[in-house]
Design brief:
This protein is of the alpha/beta class. It is built from 3 helices and 7 strands; from the N terminus they run E-H-E-E-E-E-E-E-H-H. The protein has a 5-stranded mixed beta sheet with strand order 2-1-3-5-4, with helices on one face. A two-stranded parallel sheet has the order 6-7. Strand 1, helix 1 and strand 2 form a beta-alpha-beta unit. Helix 1 crosses helix 2. The radius of gyration is 14 Å and the shape is globular. The model has no long low-confidence stretch (mean pLDDT 93). The structure holds the ligand CNC(=O)[C@@H](NC(=O)[C@H](CC(C)C)CN(O)C=O)C(C)(C)C and zinc ion (2 copies). The site of ligand NFH has 16 residues, from strand 4 and helix 2.
Length: 163
């Protein structure tokens, strides 16, 4: 779910930085790095946005794998259930994206596909809300069968309405 009620509606810049903090042990680090980069590039290709990886603490979007109580008001729930969450655009926690490390994260069809989930979460981090269209990446339930291009026309229209 997204917590945009806590943040603004959009970023006021087109170049956004992200930093990966705590990793999952389900995947090699460089696999996580490339899946996260691919999930951002899904949105970059469909909009005027650019994403730059940073190793400093003041990155706009902090990406982390955490479990249960992890320092915000939205503790995770163990295996299954909620897979991840992201805060809407804004300073501090704004844009930050957390993945529930109680899930089994994969790059394929088993477990939870990190690319699919990350692309959904980054949609929230950019200011998008859920869609009632099952073909949309922003549909509220997970489907591992999403096609490689991930975005529906509706998603492209919505991100361009914002940026
Ligand atoms: C398998 N479990 C689900 O399908 C769960 N859905 C999620 O964890 C959403 C993320 C998916 C769509 C990647 C939560 N969300 O909206 C984050 O922004 C439940 C529908 C059970 C809540
Ligand atoms: Zn969501
Ligand atoms: Zn969190």
């Amino acid at each position: 779910e997204e917590y945009s009620h806590l943040q603004g509606t959009r970023w006021n810049k087109n170049i956004l930085t992200y930093r990966i903090g705590r990793y999952t042990r389900d995947l090699h680090r460089n696999t996580v790095d490339s899946l996260v980069e691919s999930a951002f590039s899904v949105w970059a290709r469909a909009s005027s946005l650019t994403f730059v990886r940073s190793h400093t603490r003041n990155a706009d979007i902090m990406v982390e794998f955490v479990t249960y109580e992890h320092g915000d008001l939205y503790p995770f729930d163990g295996p299954r259930g909620t897979l991840a969450h992201a805060f809407g655009p804004g300073p501090g926690v704004g844009g930050d994206t957390h993945f529930d490390d109680a899930e089994y994260w994969t790059a394929g069809e088993t477990g939870m596909n990190l690319l699919v989930v990350a692309a959904h979460e980054f949609g929230h981090a950019l200011g998008l809300k859920h869609s009632r269209n099952p073909d949309s990446l922003m549909y509220p339930t997970y489907r591992s069968s999403r096609s490689a291009n991930l975005l529906s026309i509706e998603d492209v229209v919505n991100i361009n309405a914002l940026y």
